[in-house]
Amino acid sequence: MSQRFEITSVTHEVGRIAFEWDDAGGTYHVYKDGEHIYEGTSPDFQDTDLLADTYYKYTIERHANDEVKDVIVMQTSALTVEKNADNPLQSLVITTIAAKTQVALSWERLKDTEMYTIYRNGKELAQVESNRYIDRDFPMDEPLTYAVYCERSIAQSEETFNNARSFIAKAFGFLYPKTTEKEASVEGFTIMKSIGVPSKLLVPFADHQPSSSVDNWDFRYKTFLEDDILENPNVISPNRYFKGDNRKFDPESGAYRTCVDIEIDYKNPVNPLTITKKVGESVALGLDKKVRERQTASDEGITLKPLDDKKGETGFHLEHAVGNPLTTSPDINYEVQAVFGENGTFDLTGFHDQSPNHEIYLRSGKETDWIPVHQSRSAGLAYMSGVTAYQYWRFSNIN
């Protein structure tokens, strides 16, 4: 009999997930999203008729002498054939396994990515070439959030017209001496997973304290310019400088280029989504750094579309395209797709330009503090050109 109790293999197919675990002896029980679906002595299970783009949480218990001896929790999804070329992370299969001896992460390999950097609670743990990582030295009584980061060239991207875009991005790196060819043409991907406190997660199903139903979620996305004054990349413009927001990352700051707040209210099932859009004033300065013009851009480029909801979930697709009304320049572009569960789970994914600063926060109705979802520092105003590489992110949790 094995001394460990861990999942040893997971197979993903369209509509099917199969997995095996160490045979440590006794009787095994499997629960899926709170439903008891297996009891037996064979250390394997397969689940079928599964939906695409849907996380499933499995709890595997080992019983001996009328007691629960060990618990494993796994969250994963079935394979999706049709991928979103605009956002490669959206349908990516990501598997997270928690046991008392390990936290294991695996992810469907992104095309043409070679190296992955692993973080836990913001601290770098390792760099790996394989699309999996096992952490065996983790605190059991602290909330844990893991991140996986990788890069690839636009030329290797699956995005439409990627070859033309890559050529332009490389040229962009030569045209702007403060940038580099690599920065302009390299896409970044960040996958984040919050598993909470392992000691609270790894309890027998009968003793698990289910999260109280979440009445509402608050989602906040801000773009801002970190500097006080920024030089205009267009050297022939009389507007030589622009006023920035002069701040660091801060969910409560009133200084921003744009601010989008979305509330998800489950007490209003007919219209659960409410959006508030705000656009900061653009201020142009001359060569003497005195104010030349002031104007506020329209918020018409910020649109929200509800997703087809599954039971107990509400989702939306957010698109953002807001420009500087004082000069001919590209818009600040980003997109977000989000799904929120009444049980406290969430799955958020999106992408954005490399400029300006982007910050995203989340909180449930029972919380007062914002959870940082994604924070990205600007690479410079010129990176809003629309031909440079996007930054992609995904953040989800296990509850």
UniProtKB/TrEMBL annotation:
Protein name: DUF3238 domain-containing protein
Domain of life: Bacteria
A Pfam family hit: DUF3238
